Amino acid sequence: MRIPMLFVAVLATATSLTAQEQAALPSGWQARADRANAPMQNVKFVPMGDGYHVTLGPSVILYNPAQRAEGAYRAQASFTQTRAPAHPEAYGLLVGGQNLDAPNQDYLYFLVRGDGKFLVKHRAGAETHTLVDWTEHAAITRADAAGKATHALAIEATSEGVRFLVN
Q1: Is residue 102 one of the residues assigned to a domain?
Q2: Residue 8 has pLDDT above 70, yes or no
């Protein structure tokens, strides 16, 4: 199995940032909003400790085209939601990304949210295909009273299939 690109995503989704807005991203990283007219000035993505701190206004994908995997691989990341959002917000991983800066974008994504649910979808151009709709699962930690939740997510790809793992 050959997976052309591997990316970490925050929120499911996908208009690339202008050159001026790109300066706010870590070196090599790019962002794409779900809606073409989304206000990207609220997107904050900065290094913090051994990871990144992300604050979003619109739904976006964040990716680094240099991050690639072929054959069997495991993509993983830990996410901490620090406070309660106004409505259920999702975050997670995307893999198999192709043409992420073009109208014919293509990728698979795995998201969780603070209400204990997960989602798996495929995006092909402007269309999304639901593989697993929002589903509650005991492995997904519900956010506490302050809205804090931490999740370790992974996607494992092998010649036998793809596995989605939480915590």
Answers
A1: yes
A2: no
